[in-house]
TrEMBL record:
Taxonomic source organism: Duganella alba
PANTHER family in UniProt: ENOYL-COA HYDRATASE, MITOCHONDRIAL (PTHR11941:SF54), ENOYL-COA HYDRATASE-RELATED (PTHR11941)
The keyword Lyase is assigned to this record: yes
UniProt similarity note: Belongs to the enoyl-CoA hydratase/isomerase family.
An annotated GO BP: fatty acid beta-oxidation
Top-level enzyme category: lyase
Keyword annotations: Fatty acid metabolism, Lipid metabolism, Lyase
Pfam families: ECH_1
Name this polypeptide is given: enoyl-CoA hydratase
Listed GO MF terms: enoyl-CoA hydratase activity
Reaction(s) this enzyme catalyzes, per UniProt: a 4-saturated-(3S)-3-hydroxyacyl-CoA = a (3E)-enoyl-CoA + H2O; a (3S)-3-hydroxyacyl-CoA = a (2E)-enoyl-CoA + H2O
Coiled coil: none
Classification via NCBIfam families: PRK05862.1
Enzyme Commission code: 4.2.1.17
Length: 258
């Protein structure tokens, strides 16, 4: 199905979703967030897909929520119509791995959307920031919550209160992104990473994602107990039989359909 504000491609078992409003540096509006939800749910339900990549353009992952759309909102509009809550968090309900590939600006809501991915790979031209304070609002899609969890209180407060942007090298150093890639190689490299993930047993990658996300919502002992149950349950799965037998038989495992 064609989308107005997204470009969607499938590369083997990897779905690539590109935010695509180039004239507005991919500023995130309602239509784009609705379409993103549709595309994400479609690929989450598609048994042929093992990993999803979310990206923007070389110039911008997304320069924020759409300021032109927001400028005249009133509090009753945003509260009554559940602005942000109504369509920004579809990505959090996706059970398959979602890798964010960030080139250019990831600002405000763009940085917040990126942080909802499971992990981020950045191009060397990436810039991350939470400049909402400069347009008179607080972050609204997790910036004050996910940023300190990702990079610690000092760096997060610095970015949130001064609106300072950080470059890809600093983002990698402080743990906001896992790797930095030359900008013109970003998509190629991220697709390679996503193909590696998609070649793993999907039931296991989904459980790892579930367990890691639980680490941010629960106590250490509850989280470790949950992990142990998942590990023990692995022994009832074909993925464990195939993976361990393949190792002992000195061959590559075949996790197709597992
Ligand atoms: C609407 C935007 C936009 C945005 C850029 N554009 N960001 N439109 N919402 N967030 C538009 C510009 O108006 C312009 O349109 C076109 O994209 C190109 O932008 P320029 O500013 O001309 O480009 P440049 O000089 O290269 O500067 C790039 C930039 C700057 C540094 C990223 O655009 C910028 O500061 N953007 C706003 C960043 C921001 O404040 N983000 C947070 C928004 S609040 P025209 O038509 O003039 O060509 C937010 C709240 C989140 O995100 C909370 C809930 C999710």
């Amino acid at each position: 199905m064609p989308y107005e504000d997204l470009i969607v491609e499938v590369h083997d078992k990897v779905a690539l979703i590109r935010l695509n409003r180039p004239k507005a540096l991919n500023a995130l509006n309602d239509n784009m967030m609705n379409e993103l939800g549709e595309a994400l749910y479609k690929f989450d339900a598609d048994p042929a897909i093992g990993c999803i990549v979310l990206t923007g353009s070389e110039k911008a992952f997304a320069a924020g929520a759409d300021i032109a759309a927001m400028v005249d909102y009133t509090f009753p509009d945003t509260y009554r119509d559940n602005y942000i809550g109504r369509n920004w968090e579809h990505i959090l309900r996706i059970r398959k791995p979602v890798v964010g590939a960030v080139a250019g600006y990831a600002l405000g809501g763009g940085c917040e959307l990126a942080m909802m991915c499971d992990f981020l790979i950045a191009a060397d031209n990436a810039k991350f920031g939470q400049p909402e304070i400069k347009v008179g609002v607080t972050p609204g899609a997790g910036g004050t919550q996910r940023l300190p969890r990702a990079i610690g209180k000092a760096k997060a407060m610095d970015m949130l209160l001064t609106a300072r942007t950080i470059d890809a090298a600093e983002a990698e150093r402080i743990g906001l992104v896992s790797r930095v890639i030359q900008a013109d190689k970003l998509i190629e490299e991220v697709l390679t990473v996503a193909r590696q993930i998609a070649a793993m047993p999907l039931s296991v990658s989904m459980q790892i994602k579930d367990a890691v996300n639980r680490a941010f919502e629960t106590t250490l002992s509850e989280g470790v107990t949950y992990e142990r149950r998942l590990f023990q349950a692995s022994f009832g799965t074909p993925a464990q039989k195939e993976g361990m037998k393949a190792f002992l038989e000195k061959r590559l495992p075949n996790f197709e359909g597992l």
